[in-house]
Amino acid sequence: MLAIADPEPDSAPILSLRQPVTMNATPIRLDPQPSHAELARLCDKYPVSMESERTMEYGTAGFRYDAAVLPPVMVRVGILATLRALETASGYHVGVMVTASHNDESYNGVKIADPDGGMMNAQGERLAVYLANERNTDALVQYFVAQQAKYTTEKRIHSGNAATEPVVVHVGRDTRSHSPFLTCLVVKAARACGALVLDHGVVTTPMLHHAVLHANHVKFLPKLIPHRPHVDGYQRLLIDSYRALLATTDNQAPLQRSLLVDCACGVGYIGLEALLQTLDQQSSGFGSSTTIVPTNGPDSGGPLNESCGSEYVQKMIIPPTWYDADLFTSATTSEGRAIKPASVDKSYCAALDGDADRIVFFSEGGHGSDFFLLDGDKIACLLCDFVGNELGILQKAVPSISFLSLGVVQTAYANGASTAYLEQKLGKANVAIAKTGVKHVHAAAHQFDIGVYFEANGHGTIVFGDRYYDALNEAAAFLSTAVQDTVATRALRRLETLPRLVNQAVGDALSDLLLVDAILTLRRWTLAEWNAMYQDLPSRQDKIRVQDRSIIQTNDNETRCLAPASVQPRLDELVQQHPSGRCFIRPSGTEDVVRIYAEAATREAADTLCQAAARVVHDECQGVGEPPSIQSRM
Ligand code: G16
């Protein structure tokens, strides 16, 4: 494990960095300490390397590198976040999350949340790359001072007087050993730039995005969603909505089962525990039928994301290592709720990633069946099916409401069988393929009134457009005066609850966990019944190292390799050898690897195709080390 000594001894006032790892219900307020001299000191103390020829890139999900090279980036992200907040004439808040999500402990990273709670836009990314690579401290400070003066003048003109809103930056971090120190650098730089910092401490990535969205609620939060700021608001909103959705059941007999959750030995464990405490506090007499059992927490003894977590389970298509020694010991809360049943049933399981923005479900051989995986594709199909059914009921009862488009966005990693299922259910025009990365799929989902998006790796959510809320309003008005229609009223209640339970800012493992569990409970479905919606084509993924992955270029949706030119013809030739074969390669934006995806009609063919494609990459793209084989996957 990489440890970075804290060379900022005066960081003690940043209280949350000194606290035990529990979740803050509300953030700690750190007042601005504007000082261009302090900013220059930080830039000088953490300089961008003069020797390195590497350009720091804002990749699929922010800057993500070996933690040891990140201190200069973090100082510059403090400047970036302040400028992003200053740039918005209306004084919107922005967010900074320090995490490397699914990567191993040696990595860390940082992503910026824009005022709408979503990922930072492309213009912000360009600024991020400039700042992170500027070697000259004077140039950096002067750039900041000039931009600050420009935005402050614009703001004053906009607001009509000299008093302007404070510039506010929210920060959060995951449980990595170096995250406190790296966060401290963001905080110090932002305060030196004159920002007020709201320090949320240890949080999941989606909690930080929620905090930013709700901080800017007047402009960005849809009317139907109550304003619930901070982490405690997040928990209350999710639990209230989960209960509201379950309360629409027409079957009173409780369905008792347990859901075992592998939290990747990361922050998701702390987030889920906090959520379950809220459920306990607010649920007297509530017939919640699923006992949710968080496991693989930061103290379980397992290394972060190693042989566990959603990335491992989904990429390897095998169950995780269960690190908790007391997994089979029964335990109850002080209110008597079973939190660890005496015998753990592994027929209903889920796995989160290291910052809890992804989730996949799986069954580990309950009732004599083998392991099977329900990834982001299966979640997307379940959600589309549920929303489509309820919408169909409502539209039949209230024909005057406008037609709403229900569409789904996937990436090249989507299993071909899932795409075929969705095209058949929703129509081809309502199934889109976008480039990998939640920033791309999220943006593409906005073309629909109800846009479901999920990457196969379990990163996804649903976004709802204005026409959705208008239609529900109209339906509510109609149903309040019409002859009682319980089925339509129930559909309306379900559709009204969805935008509250679903994280509108970003894919969210905890929100998705509650949503999927509620739908399965309402339908009284087992994972096997859910899995039977369609049968996945066998697929295989691999990753290999090459000398320089930036030589690989793909088309827009990453299904074809454009450079090196010799790669795609060889892949095409391989694909033709396998019935239902499909294969693509792309450079990762979060790891120093090239990813390979293959699927075919049989398991053997998918494995063979993947292995052969990995060899093509190795041959044509200057692979490092021995040519890869399926058996020697990293
Ligand atoms: C990030 C992105 C995801 C993306 C994943 C892998 O996830 O948010 O959208 O699918 O990286 O990206 P790549 O294949 O480019 O390495 P996370 O959970 O690691 O933040």
From TrEMBL:
Top-level division of the source organism's lineage: Eukaryota
Cofactor(s) needed by this chain: Mg(2+)
Domain (Alpha-D-phosphohexomutase alpha/beta/alpha): residue spans on this chain: 89-123, 137-216
Keyword Isomerase: yes
Keywords noted in UniProt: Isomerase, Magnesium, Metal-binding
GO BP: carbohydrate metabolic process; UDP-N-acetylglucosamine biosynthetic process
Domain Phosphoacetylglucosamine mutase AMG1: 375-525
Xref: Gene3D superfamilies: Alpha-D-Glucose-1,6-Bisphosphate, subunit A, domain 3 (3.40.120.10), Alpha-D-phosphohexomutase, C-terminal domain (3.30.310.50)
Record keyword Metal-binding present: yes
Span of the signal peptide: none
Stretches assigned to the Alpha-D-phosphohexomutase C-terminal domain: 579-614
Alphabetized GO MF terms: metal ion binding; phosphoacetylglucosamine mutase activity
Protein family according to the UniProt entry: Belongs to the phosphohexose mutase family.
Name the UniProt record assigns to this protein: Phosphoacetylglucosamine mutase
